[in-house]
Amino acid sequence: MAIPEWDDKFSIHNDVIDVQHKKLFDIAHRAGLLISKQVDGNEIKKILVELFEYMKVHFHDEEAYMASIGYPGLERQSAMHQQIIRDMTDLIQNIRYDFKQKLAIITEEWLINHILKEDMQIEIYRKAHEEEIKAMQAKQNGEKEITHIYKCACKPAFKVLNTVHEKIQSGQAFHCKKCGEGIVFVRDE
């Protein structure tokens, strides 16, 4: 597998995690260059240690981010992270031969596949639950979520979160899922 270049399509829309993912891609690319040329085993060990140390920091930060958005796959991701760390520890401690093959396994299978497959699930969840996450984070920060009362053809009154209200006020149209009619502002609560 060729290691792809970092692209914004890999973003999970968290600046800290995205910067860390970019750095991990950079390390993977440097590792890829070592794999394709004649190098000393110590160079490979050095990049393995750099990758290992950076991954521990990254996994910690990524798990904190997943917790902050209520990501339901946190426990599974955490278990995967722990397994990767155990495997890397074992690999670094027991590396005697086939440095390049082992480095390729780490960079391609563990690192890149993990980011491209597993971590992208975090972004899919964040995107699908954006409004609930904002409300949850506002509540955690002690902010009172302002609600607004709206109506449609089938409901005389229902609550809308401030984030949705702001979108409607900026010109975005929202329709009732039941009757299909546009919703109309009634009052603030």
From TrEMBL:
Keywords: Iron, Metal-binding. Pfam families: Hemerythrin. One of its GO terms (molecular function) is metal ion binding. Residues 15-121 form the Hemerythrin-like domain. The keyword Iron applies. InterPro entries: Hemerythrin, Hemerythrin-like, Hemerythrin-like_sf, Hemerythrin_metal-bd. Coiled coil: none annotated. PANTHER family: BACTERIOHEMERYTHRIN. Belongs to the hemerythrin family. This is Hemerythrin-like domain-containing protein. It comes from Helicobacter canis NCTC 12740. The lineage of its organism: Bacteria, Pseudomonadati, Campylobacterota, Epsilonproteobacteria, Campylobacterales.
